[in-house]
Input
Amino acid sequence: MTITRRRALLAGAALSVSLIATACGSPGDGGQGAAPAQSTSATDQEAALNAGGTITVWAWEPTLKQVVTGFQAKYPKVKVNLVNAGTGDDQYTALQNAIKAGSGVPDVAQIEYYALPQFALSKSVTDLTPFGADKLEGTFTPGPWNSVRSGTGIYGLPMDSGPMALFYNKDVFDKHDIKVPETWEEYIEAARKLHKADPKAYITSDTGDAGFTTSMIWQAGGKPYQVDGTKVAIDFADEGTRKFTAAWQQLISEKLLAPINGWSDEWYKGLGDGTIATLVIGAWMPANFESGVKAASGKWRVAPMPQWESGGKATSENGGSSLAVPEASANKALAYAFMKYAGVDEGVQTRLDAGAFPATTAHLNAAEFKDKKFPYFGDQQVNQVLAEAAAQVVPGWSYLPYQVYANSVFNDSVGKAYISSTTLDDGLKAWQDASVKYGQEQGFSVQ
Amino acid sequence: MTATTRGPLVIRHRRPSPRRRRSVTLTVLTSIMLIYTLLPLAWLAINASKTQEGLLNSFGLWFDDDFALFSNIATAFSYDGGIFTRWLLNTLLYVVAGAGGATLLATIGGYGLAKFDFPGKTAVFAVVIGAVAVPGTALAVPTFLMFSSLGLTNTPWAVIIPSLVSPFGLYLMWTFAVDAVPREILESARMDGAREFQIFFRISLPLLAPGIVTVLLFTVVATWNNYFLPLIMLKDPGWYPLTLGLSAWNAQATTAGGEAIFNLVITGSLLTIVPLIVAFLLLQRYWQSGLAAGSVKE
Output
């Protein structure tokens, strides 16, 4: 418990740093950004690989360790320094501080899709078009590919993806004779039935999670963020958003959501003992189930994400990361070559074997991948469901160019809806206001 | 001390025996405080003996069926290529260099301020008192920017150098030195022709020992538990102290594909506090006398 609390404190403290860093380092922090595009054809990358050198990679994703081993075996002259500089926010803070300070910047950094626009807009990361990234269109599924593009530039290579699906505890569903929901309406019904049958059990847990909420709005067809360069519009009152809030408000008001913070020890416990009966989450989740929720092995199954219209197939992306090259990197050709190895070439298979979920269409559609049986999920071929979801991501979504900040203040506004009489709509309105205000302070033109 | 001259009998009558001085209220309050303090420790010790699954499936304040403390300790030291040992050694380095250096500087500075008169002493006093009031966290970001322009971030220096400054330690040594080293001794030493450094090392230092141990304990605890400063300064897990390392292990559970190792986080935490507890038990009599130092003015 103390650890959780300490992390919360830390998040607040680290945030203040990132604010300072962004405030000083936003657009026009020229110098490095103005560097001329290096000539970097495929032959140049090949030459860089053969010439060798050392690159530093900041990433927390665990399977990259094996990728680095494979890469160094293939290109013995290249040395890759893999550094875990923190998970998520911690790493972005560190990265922004390093960029601001102009020293200690890595050659490759893992950046989640939601955070990438922030680094792309400030030109803290390199446009990869001159390296041939534009030729990779079609290599990746639409969700992650759209997430790494901003304007005409391509600012990262997708590493994994998280099309959403419904993970459910079949034991719990069978025990209370509940049908696996196909629509959100049925989902709410299931929530009521389950909690009535067993007051200790909840359909899912949610105490306010920015990533989850935005992904849900995304699936419902909401487009709260409209971004055109530094012109930003935020509107949490569109039809899609309303669809989501109307449904989710019922779950909150009727106290059908377990008050358990995601990713806490209690959450892992709840997933194991049936307290949390479903998770609507990204396709990367199986690996976490297998390593973190061993107690419920054989009980969980995967189904398509519940729909807003009966018979629909819409999904959205939840989480997932890209690899990007900070503008200050001194060895961009080598950095790009590593990213391509990890995200497009042999590295993908290495990561798949270790349980990651790919962003590349070829791997998603490979028979070997789709037909793999998961003993954890009662021998279900879960990738069938997940690969299908990857192809059904609703197009047209964008995140704010300062989503990292916005997500960090989500709990101050929307979080209230989960613990007080504030409604979800009011909470989102307050979040919108806070995001608008911050955007204006940062020099964006926000509506 | 006068007791021996007056005879023991009188004393026995005058002083109530220790037994009678017991207050029920105080005993109750102290017991509550004791439980309050020991409960988290007990929780830590109990849960360090559980496996990752056992941790999630058993009652928090009692043992699980299989006792996995030793396998947890073994795994903690071998996990991820034995990085825990590296973190332990880093912490020791920061403590020895940082806390040791801070104590040395505080002792020399406090002694100098207490025993020498020089212009601007009042100003120094004001600055030191002011510095005691500023929390280190508030200075962390400016310190980071300064160190990064010096090119020292992501090196052990970035943790050690800021740890060398301990305004509270300086203040404590100052007040302690005022009473602990009588001016008369210094004067007679000077009369006998001793030089100032000779006086400091051969006469004053032994007299200051209880104060030094107190400051040392303070700075050791502060450096051992230091979290925010290394968090900002260090990127490379190879230089992490235990606090940051454990936090990184804990964060592992919050990412796609990450392995939840709460059992190692808890076992690691237990291993982290053991050296501090040992240090306290060994040095506690100095600590007590140090705390009382300067509280009575003669």
